[in-house]
Structure formats: structure tokens, C-alpha cells
Design goal:
- The mean pLDDT is about 90.
- This protein has helices at about 10, 140-150, 180, 215-220, 235-240, 250-265, 285-290, 305-315, 330-340; strands spanning about 20-25, 30-45, 55-65, 75, 80-85, 100-105, 110-115, 120-125, 125-135, 170-175, 190-200, 205-210, 290-295.
- Helix 6 (about 250-265) packs across helix 9.
- It is of the alpha+beta class.
- Helices cover about 20% and strands about 25% of the residues.
- Strand 3 and strand 4 form a beta hairpin.
Length: about 375
Amino acid sequence: MSDHFSGMRAEADPAIDLADLYAFPSPSRTGRLVLVMDVFPNARPGALFSDAASYRFLLRPVAVTVDRPGSPFELGADEYAFTCTFSGPVESDTEGELPQWGTCVVPEGESVAFQVDDERGGEGQGVRVYAGLRLDPFFMDVGKEVATRAERRLAFLPKGTNTAQDLDVLSIVVEFDVASQLGPASGTVFAVAAETVTAGPYPLRLERLGRPEVKNVLLSENGVDTANTVVDLRDLYNEEDPFGPGPRHLAAYRSRLNANLAFFDGLDDKTDWQTGPDGTHPLTDLLLADFLVVDVARPYAEDSYFEIERAVLEGRPYASCGGRSLDDDVIDTLYTLIVNAFRGPRVSDGVDRATAPAAREFPYLAPPNLHPPAPVSVPTASAGR
């Protein structure tokens, strides 16, 4: 589900497992951008961030070109990072808990300190940071999505079951004033990605994340990609630069996407995407530019996921901020895109909302469920092959 459990390395160490990434303009404060990173799927009370990893939000200015639908995003050379690190649990407080402290280093090098689970967060230099246990804002009927791929038909029900219902994650929220942090020359449109890397002077990438469900759905093994039948591509993909895969495994990713996208297009028994003579799918290059695209100058919109990319595909100016809000129904958007190219009825997994809606003020995510149910084990990597 989304990016939860997206590879063997992530499953082995849930504290570095990137579950979701969100980026949206502040609903109440003009010029401020909100970034949210969720890690540790199915976290229980007392779960800790890793003290051996760095959690990084990465941004690059981007120019959007509607006349080049295959490669519509021209990334700027400057890259900005908000890097969060955490201590180990410190000596027990008076209530017997083990508090954890964090530090966020902003692009100009200043540090913002905060205590984990303190809703006030930390603040300084036009930046506010929160980290702690919250309700998982993601919603999806994972079982029916897996059945859709296994049975090669749309298996969703009108009323689905939210696999993430009542479950928690560890969340990091960074809200900042774009002009003061990145400078006016950076513009207002940004590519946003996230990564976890090993702490220390020579970081190694552990996982990367851009759009939801790229690894667990779009790069999944469905028995249609004859070029890649053995290797789980997700761990390879997790090692790639967040703003574009390198040449070593690029052909493998392209082969998997071309095959899977044609497979998804056929789930409604008609063809809405015309592939090229070599089998290249029109969405492949766009999806390999795997990052959220958000315009902080546009007003906050709850349902703006993939709006900028869709505008490029349709050759029109985009109408909203893009990015991804906490309440956006991204699964319906994704499946409608890949099944009927928005030329037919909206494809729904039957789940329209999370356990609790997001707030419009910092720290945005709903408080955690302190008595979460036992997590349900649902396969996400393949359709039973």
C-alpha cells in the first residue's frame, strides 16, 4: 500500500521504511509549503525513529513545459534539503516514557530542535517541524487491488475496506516560508522527493520516495514483463537518485513500466493508451520522473494530486497547486489514469477517506490511535506470482 513495505530492506527495518510523501501549500498561510513524510508502517505506541539514519526532504525548482508531454519537467540545478536526525531514547521521564529528540537542518544550515510527539514542534528561521506518532492518513483497499492484478480484472467493490484503518505511522512534518528559506529566485514550482540515508559523513541511500504506488503497483511483478522475471526491482529502485534513475537499471524499469501500463490499460477490455512501435507506453517517461510537482503560488486544494502532470498530458495549463494533500484519494486518481486515461468513469477502490480527516493547521495529521489493531498482512509486491 502506497510505499509501505516497498522492498526487503524496508521490511527488515520499518524505522527507515518510507510509507508516504505529501507536499501542499499551507491552507492558511500564503507562501508556505508543507512537507510530510510518513515512516514505520503499522507503528505501535513507543515506536522510535532510527538514530542511525537521516530522513531527508529534497526539493528542486522545476519548469513545466506543456509542449513536451514525454519529458515535461526541466529540473533546476539547485537542490534544497531539509534533513532530520534523531537521538536515541534518553533517560526515562517522570511518567516512565523514553522521550526522543530530533534536529532538522534547513537548506541555509540552521538547525531546528524539537521533541518527538510534542505537538508544538520546534520553530525557527521561518521553519516549523513536528515528528511523532500519528494516525496513518493513507487509505486504500489493498486486498482488492492485489486481487485486481492477480485476477486480471477490476475487483474493487462499491464499498471497500480500508487496509490502513486505525493504524499509526511515525510522521515528520516540515512547514516553511519558501521565499525566506529558498530565496525568491527559486520560483514557486518544485519537484519534491524524500529519502532515508545512513547517518554520518558518507551517507548511503536506504530508500527513496516520490509518487505513491510507483514501487508496489506500477513496478510490481504481474507476469507480463518477460525481460525481468527474477529480480525484485523495488530494492534496486530504492537506491536510485530521487530525481531520476541512473543508466544502470533504467532499461529494466522502462521494460517493467511499459509492460505493466499496457496490462492496466486492458483491465476494462479496451485500449485508451496507444503504445509506440517499440512498445513504449506514453506514461513511462512521465512516471520515471518520480517526484511530486507542487506550485506553492496556487491555493491549497484537497484533490490536486497529479493535476500538473495531467495538464501536461492534455496540453493545457494546470488549474491547481498539484502536489499531494493528506486527504487526496490518490488510488482512485492513479487507477483512473492507468485504466482509462480519464476518458471513462472514475475507477474507485471503494475507499474514499482515511480513518480520520486531516486538520488544516499544524501538525495537520490526526492524533494516533493508542490502541491500534493487530496489522493485517496483505501482499503488496506482486499479484501472487
